[in-house]
Design goal:
With about 100 residues, this protein is mainly alpha-helical. It contains three helices and no strands. Helix 2 packs antiparallel against helix 3. It starts with a helix and ends with a helix.
Length: about 100
Amino acid sequence: MSTRQDFALYAKSKLAPVLRQMVERVLIDKPAKPVEFMIEFLKAHGDSLGQEILDSQIKTMKEVGGEGIDGEVAQLLQKVEELGRDNSALKKISLEMAERL
């Protein structure tokens, strides 16, 4: 798989669901300060959105079935741990950005 395909797959599976929900809330609420609103949205919902995405992916994998599903689930669980660490770093960055606003 090419780097471009990797980027597209990552964006579609990881970023799109979170961004879709966040942009939806921005368009519905129409905040005066959309950047601050998005930062707060991610701080408040980041963990739960990530879990929703993971749950959905695991459900799909189980429905599709196939060999090696347990190994794939184990890999996903390992990825969840990595994402948790990444999420902590993103929260720190968003707090720093919010302080600058």
